Amino acid sequence: MTTSTKTPGKTIYDLALHETLAVKNRYNDELDVTRVPGGWIERWGKTAGVFVPYSPEFKFADMARKRDALDELDEIEQGHGV
Fold first, then answer.
1. Tens of pLDDT along 17-71?
2. pTM
3. In the β-sheet with 20-24, what is the strand arrangement from edge to edge?
4. At CA 16, angle to CA 22 and CA 46, rounded to 5?
5. What is the pLDDT of residues 3-28, one digit of tens each?
6. 3-state secondary structure of 3
7. DSSP-derived pairing of the beta strands 39-43 and 3-4
8. Three-class SS of residue 14?
9. Strand, coil or helix: what is 4?
């Protein structure tokens, strides 16, 4: 999942139609992602954009990891009487 460089916590799935978000990918490359009907357009610098069709496949990937981390933290806190 990409992460926002200017709006912490916002993902490409949160974008309104025609809204653009500056994000970094897993290789730390910064790109602009614009929400369009049916997906997104990803653009690196002044290069031509690439259309990426919408897929909910990874929408909850980060949320699941976050939930797992919070569950683990709760277990640790309960184990230490915090």
1. 999 999 887 888 888 999 999 999 999 888 889 999 987 766 666 666 667 777 7
2. 0.60
3. 3-4, 20-24, 30-36, 39-43, 50-53
4. 35
5. 455 666 788 888 999 999 998 878 88
6. strand
7. unpaired
8. helix
9. strand
- Check residue 18 and give left, alpha or beta (phi > 0: left; psi -120 to 50: alpha): left
DSSP 20-68: EEEEE-TT--EEEEEEETTEEEEE-TTSPPEEEE--GGGTTHHHHHHHH
Distance separating alpha carbons of residues 2 and 61, to the nearest angstrom: 11
Give the tokens for residue 79: 């184990």
Whether the CB-CB separation of 17 and 2 falls below 8 Å is answered with no
Q: CB-based burial of residue 26 (10 Å sphere; 0-12 exposed, 13-18 middle, 19+ buried)?
A: exposed
